[in-house]
């Protein structure tokens, strides 16, 4: 039993996690892959329409270290590289690669490693990059980048504390694949050369806990249960609970010798290193009262959500809202004609009985409840005031960007104020203003450089003309002198 700490704020929520078994879906007729990975991070197609691809073959890549290669999740033919709706809060369409599957599921041969300890940490890290692995907890940050030590790492934390209501993909993965998760954790510990490794799960997951204890019985990994207080599964909150270290808003856990990875990521690392398989599938929870038969599904990346919903028997008649992610931090979807991406951990179809009463927001009564539950120790009421009146500088004074959008303040607000919605909008406006300012500085610099170059060219031209004139004058005076002689 290791000592545990408590992070500020947080709330106890009804988990709505009744699911555990993992279903294997049928192969969809079409797979779709957006080229946009995260905000402003694009990959380039390395295939052409008409080209045949195998399962596991790279279809898009980028030189950007913050992008990861995309692999085909089944064999088939590239039918188009065209605009399709993508999973984005503003319902964006963007360029996607579309594969028509051939039903054969022919696999591109991989390069499995029989004993990871025979390879160097750098080689293994490179393999995780080539396998396109990202953090599967929802952030989708490239795992290879997180596994690169800037400072020595003393503790690797594997996050299985799936704290957001409804989502149960991690707990079901632990129950089904605890042994492989332990292997993936050991590989990452070896890559980081970390002194210790902890796997943390919530204390409401007894079956998963037992599975991990049995799988780790002969290795030096600590399996720890943490209280089910939302958002314990947040990276910084979990680190604080397990180590007492408070990671400052602008700092990274790595700055403090800590690295946190999700259990799904550990499983993907095991598959990439031990089996030579790139990341082409993940576990997704399909749940909510709006889904007829909720399930956890091992889905291929690129599968249309509607295909997975059909495998769950479709929607119930009273479905009201479709969300990608959980009920607290997910994004609303306008359609299910959108493909699963690496970050998709849950598809939640909610009925009106599950949605909070859609009452119009009332004035803030300054009760302070929002500040009491805020895990980032912010003053949401002040942030709301300034974001609503577009006083963005003041928003920054009140640390707007430290908000992790956990939604705790929304849940407790007696005035039903959509606080997080305001904070997201304010962040969006500030980010676009910052981008515009950066572009203006760049344009000014470009103009100044252009002017400088033109000035230099003029000077050079003038110099050449003067030299030429001096030469002509010299020649003329020499000719005059010759005539005199
Ligand atoms: S919880 Fe709502 S009403 Fe209370 S202070 Fe915060 S914003 Fe105002
Ligand atoms: S959404 Fe932001 S402001 Fe609200 S409780 Fe969470 S971190 Fe605090």
In short:
With 485 residues, the chain is α/β, with parallel strands linked by helices. The protein contains twelve helices and 19 strands. The chain has a domain at 22-311: 3-Layer(aba) Sandwich (Rossmann fold).
Descriptive report:
The chain starts with 21 loop residues before the first strand and ends with a helix. The protein has a domain at 22-311: Rossmann fold. A 6-stranded mixed β-sheet has the order 1-16-15-19-17-18, with helices on both faces. A 4-stranded antiparallel β-sheet has the order 2-10-9-6, with no helix packed on it. Strands 13-12-11-14 form a 4-stranded parallel β-sheet, sandwiched between helices. Helix content is 34%, strand content 19%. It is an alpha/beta fold and 485 residues long. It has 12 helices and 19 strands. One iron/sulfur cluster binds at residues 364-370, 380-381, 384, 412-415, 417.
């Amino acid at each position: 039993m290791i000592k545990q700490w408590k992070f500020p704020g947080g709330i106890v929520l009804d988990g709505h996690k009744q699911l555990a078994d993992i279903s294997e879906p049928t192969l969809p007729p079409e797979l779709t892959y957006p080229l946009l990975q995260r905000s402003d991070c694009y990959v380039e197609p390395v295939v052409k329409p008409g080209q045949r691809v195998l399962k596991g073959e790279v279809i898009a890549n980028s030189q950007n270290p913050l992008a990861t290669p995309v692999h085909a999740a089944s064999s088939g033919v590239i039918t188009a590289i065209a605009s399709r709706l993508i999973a984005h809060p503003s319902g964006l369409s963007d360029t996607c690669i579309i594969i028509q599957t051939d039903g054969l599921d022919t696999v591109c041969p991989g390069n499995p490693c029989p004993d990871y300890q025979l390879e160097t940490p750098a080689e293994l890290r490179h393999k995780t990059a080539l396998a396109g692995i990202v953090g599967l907890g929802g952030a989708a940050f490239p795992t290879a980048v997180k596994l690169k030590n800037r400072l020595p790492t003393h503790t690797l934390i594997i996050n299985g504390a799936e704290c957001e209501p409804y989502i149960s993909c991690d707990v079901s993965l632990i129950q089904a694949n605890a042994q492989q998760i332990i292997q993936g954790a050991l590989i990452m510990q070896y890559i980081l050369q970390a002194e210790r490794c902890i796997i943390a799960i919530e204390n409401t997951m007894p079956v998963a806990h037992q599975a991990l204890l049995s799988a780790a019985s002969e290795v030096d990994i600590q399996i720890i249960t943490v209280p089910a207080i939302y958002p314990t599964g947040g990276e910084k909150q979990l680190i604080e609970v397990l180590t007492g270290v408070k990671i400052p808003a602008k700092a990274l856990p790595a700055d403090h010798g800590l690295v946190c990875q999700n259990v799904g990521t550990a499983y993907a690392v095991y598959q990439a290193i031990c089996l030579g398989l790139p990341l082409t599938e993940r576990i997704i929870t399909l749940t909510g009262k709006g889904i007829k038969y909720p399930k956890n599904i091992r889905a291929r990346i690129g599968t249309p959500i509607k295909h997975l919903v059909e495998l769950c028997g479709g929607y119930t008649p009273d479905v009201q809202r479709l969300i990608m992610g959980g009920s607290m931090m997910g994004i609303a979807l306008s359609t299910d004609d959108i493909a699963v991406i690496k970050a998709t951990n849950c598809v939640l179809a909610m009925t009106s009985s599950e949605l909070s009463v859609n009452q119009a927001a009332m004035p803030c009564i300054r009760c302070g409840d929002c500040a009491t539950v805020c895990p980032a120790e912010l003053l949401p009421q002040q942030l709301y005031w300034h974001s609503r009146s577009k006083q963005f500088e003041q928003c920054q004074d009140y640390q707007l960007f430290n908000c992790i959008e956990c939604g705790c303040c929304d849940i407790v607000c007696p005035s039903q104020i959509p606080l997080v919605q305001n904070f997201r909008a304010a962040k969006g406006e500030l980010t676009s203003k910052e981008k515009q300012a950066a572009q203006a500085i760049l344009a000014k610099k470009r103009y100044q450089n252009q002017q400088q170059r033109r000035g230099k060219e003029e000077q050079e031209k003038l110099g050449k003309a003067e030299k030429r004139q001096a030469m002509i004058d010299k020649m003329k005076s020499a000719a005059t002198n010759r005539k005199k002689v």
